[in-house]
Each structure stands twice: as C-alpha cells, then as structure tokens.
Specification:
By secondary structure, the protein is mainly β. It is built from six helices and 38 strands.
Length: 643
Amino acid sequence: MDFRFGRAALRRGSTNRNRCGLAFALAALAGAAAAGGPQADDLADLSLEQLGDIEVTSVSRRAERLLDAAASIYVITADDIRRSGAATLPEALRLAPNLQVARVNASNYAISSRGFNNALGNKLLVLIDGRTVYTPLFSGVFWDAQEVMLQDVERIEVISGPGATLWGANAVNGVINVITRPAGATRDGLLAATAASDQRALAVRQGGALGSGSYRVYARRTRIDNTFDAQSARQPDGWDSAQAGFRADWGDAASGFTVQGDSYRGESEMRAFGPVEVSGSNLIARWNHEEDDGEHWRVQAWFDHSRRDDPVLFHDRMDVADLEFQHSLPLAAHTLVWGGGYREARDRIEKGLLATFIPARRTLQWSNLFVQDAIRLDEAVEATVGLKLDRNTYTGVEVLPTLRLAWKTSPDQLIWAAVSRAVRAPSRIDKEFFLPTAPPFLIRGGPDFVSEVSNVFELGFRGQSGDAFSWSLTAFHHRHDKLRSGQPAASGGGFFVVNLNEGTTTGVEAWATWRLGERTRLAAGLVELHQNLRQKPGGRDPEGTTDLGNDPRHQAQLRATVQLAPRHELDVSARAVSRLPAPVIPGYAVLDAGYAWRPSPRLALAVRLRNLFDARHPEFEPGVLSQRSEFGREGSVDLEWRW
C-alpha cells in the first residue's frame, strides 16, 4: 500500500471535464421505463414498507426498525449489491450516499464519512460480522485485505456520525457494519464468475445441513489489472488475491451459536523493490441467548492474524484477540444495554527501505465498559442516555457519553437529535513511526500525542409515505480539537507528530427513495460538507491542515432500478463528486448501466458498462511513491449459477 505521509505529497493539475445532463438522462430513462406495463414479479425489490421494517442493530446494539433508528443510518441491502454488480467491498460501499469512496489505484481506496478522507483514514470504524477490521498501526483499514463474499452479505449498515458510546474509539465519523447471512439461508451451491475489462473473479460456495444446524464453505479468486496514469503509462499496481472461509450456525439469530473464519492472501505486481504481499486468517465464535421476556445476552470472541510485507515501508506481523460481552434487559419503560470487552494486539515490525517503527515489538491493550438506557418518556418520545469508559495503552481511560432524543410524530415519521463525544485514540503511527529508518528523521512519532476529540451535534428527520416515498435528512456540526499535525523539532531537524490542529465540520446529508409504479424505483442522495480546519496557536506545520483529509464539498448520486419484464432487469446510476482541494483533483461524474437476464431461477447473466461518458479520470492522490491512477470506461459480463 502507498501511504500518503503528508508534507511531501505531489501536487498535480488536470483538465476539468464537462459532465452536463447525466442526471437528467437517468431520470428520463427511469420515467420512460415506468410508463405502463405488467406487474413486477418475485424478482422485484422489497417494497418501501418492507425496507422501512428492516431491523438494524448498529445504532443501539439491539434490533430495531430502520424507521425507528435515531441516527443517520443507510442500509445497503443484498439486492442493492446484486443489482450494482459490485465485485469488491469498497465498490459496494459506493451505494451508500453518506460515504465518500475514492479509488486510489487497482486495489486501494480512501473511504470516509463526513470528511477527513485520506490514505490514513482513521475516524471510521469498520466491522465484518462483529469483528473490527481496522489496524492498530494507524487506526484505519487496509482495504486491499478486506475480501468479502458479497453474494453472502445480508446487508451493510452504514452510520454517518459518531458511535463511540457503543463501539468505542475510532467510531468518530461513522460506523460500517457488514453483516452476512446465516448459514441456514445459504443451503445451496453457487458459482459466480466475472469477466471485466480490468479484472476477473471466480467464487464458489456450498452450503448444507450440519446436524441440527447449517454450514457453508466458500472460496474466491480475484485478479485486478494494472491501472494507468494521465500519460497512459501502466502503473505497477495490479493485484492478485484469494480467500476461503466457512460459517456454521446452530439455533437462530435470537438464541444460537455461530463459528466462522476466513483465510486470505494477496500480492501486487512486481515493483522496483519487490511486490507488496498480504496474508492472514481470522476466527470468530459467538453465542446468543434470548429469554421469553426479551432479556438477551451475547458473548463473542475472535482472533485475527495478519501479515503485510511492503519492501518500501515495513514488514508487519500482528495478532489480535478480542473478547466481548453484552446484556440487554427490558425494564418497564427502560431498555438497558450494558457490557464490556477486552482486546490485545501483539505487533512485530521489521523496517522497510524508507520507514520503521520504534520499538519494533509492541503489545497494545484495550478494555471497555459501557451502559446505555433507552427511556420511554411517553408513547411518542424516547430518550437514550449512554456512557462508555474506554481504556487504551497510550492515553488511559477515555470518557465517551451520548444523549439522543427521538420523537415519533406518526408511526412512519421520526424526528431525532443527538449530542455525542467521540475520540480517535493514538495508534502506532502517531507515537512510534519514523521516516527514514535512521537519523536524521524527517518524521518522528510524537511521544506526547494524545487522543483527537470531536464533540458532535446532530438533528435528523426520517419518514415514509406509504409504499411510494421514503426519505432521510440530517444536519450535523462537529467541533474537533487536538487534531493531528506536524511540528518542527527543536533540534535534529524533521517534524514531531503533535495535536495542534482544530476546527469544525458542518453539513447536510440527505437521501430519498421514490417508487414509480410497480416496475421502477429511483434512489437519490446528496451530501454538502463544509470544513473549517486551522492550526492552533503555536502550530508551525508548513502543510497547515492539508494532511488531515481531502474532501469534496458536494457529492450526489441517482440510481434507477427497473423491472423490464419478469426475468429482465435494468439498472442505471449516476454519481457526481466536486473537486478535491489539496492536492487538487478535478470534479467528475460517472454514468453506469447494467442489464440482467434470468433465464431460469438458478441462472443469471448480466452485462454492465461503467463510466460511459468519461474516457478517464482520477479520484484521489496516492502519495509520493507512485503516479496518480486514472479510471476510465469498463465493461463486464457476470454469471451466477445455483444448484
């Protein structure tokens, strides 16, 4: 992975492109398809009423209707993923209008919510079936190592805004929770193949009965081709990966036992000093039990081993073990959720050509206790009060409170407000990273670096009008303090990592779904983001605040899904992203289209075209170690066969 370490990032310009009329073309196409025709059959999407009744768990750690969740949450359904043709988890996350997803090169992405997007993105918590996948190296995610069998995903819950009281440090700007189907829902065989202009993928899965329970096993292989830079030169960033895994379930979601695991490996193209190689494995065990009166408890344990060899940066071996307990207890007008957990990471790093960590070996520990009480004030109003005490190796105990109010103005309308405190605790890159590997250092870890703090205020409105229209609107204001920055060293040259930036993030995020008859659905999303980041008194970082993130002020998307006939589907989507300021990335817009045909219930074929109106555009700056990749028109053919 090519890190962007800040002050040495290249600044490159590019010619702006004209993208007029994409949204109008999409709307016209959807309207034409909606005019007349027979009723949609069983292949049609869930109705809007059914979507509103989807139960989510990421907001309160207990099952609740999406329409009742007092947070800015968007749910990516299994049908959304299928119809989009997404081949990787980051591409599936583009479906969430409250995320910024920027592709960096063949296998790497910069993903954030509400700003601070960069290659070291560290304020977004990502979980896959309850397992936290961010690395203690920099509190972010190595997206090239997060392979998921997308055909087995039940839903992805995307929360924009803080979730620290329940999920702890790093849940500052959002939470992504990937939830796969129970094994009992995949008691069949599946072969999925993709042949695209820039990648090939093959996946196979087999499920069945296992005593009184169910199981599934899967394997997948993906090859992503090299990208090109602005001069049409091939980049050495092609990626080859493979992953296999299993899941077994006994009982049901309320009371049952689950064990699952994965093993993976990935390797880049050969580079000047050798390829980047990753590998790892994980194992999760989870036990749920629910009493007749609604009392519920859960015990979960997981272990994760990962290896990353980057000849230029570092060679890392990390083992992480986690144990968590949670208890939910209904008490008259109260619903109490409390619990705690312990996590330990053992990290061993060997220096690369440019960078090192001192000390090379480190054991990190985290422990937490939390309690949250949802208090029913009357039939229409509920207050939620929560507190988490989160202890880490570097800064000790962090206090993470939240207060939420929810008012059901009608059965299908909710007004909510929230005040929260969240922190991004230090990681190894803040305290122990050194560049180059020997003095004099250009960048030195900051021994006095402390947690970044965000105080967040939110006001939201969510509702649904029958089965024709649903919407969500959220206004937010984040006050940030002690943000990461660089400070010239008093002696020896270079920069220390310190906490001398601050500022605010203010914006609005909105999305809506509109059903046009029985055949067509429109989904639209919009985010307006305004950041005011500055150095605190005494700050002398020559880069100012540009290293904190590179975010568009506006982004929008519009999707149309059309049931042309009982076995024929059409999907068209447009998205537009305004320019990124530092370094400058011109704004761009893309139009994608896909057609799927199901000749039988067990066989599906699809043809998809992406980026139809743009020859090539960049989405993000990779850093100083490689040229900026650009992405152009792509085509793919997908096949799914079930038995």
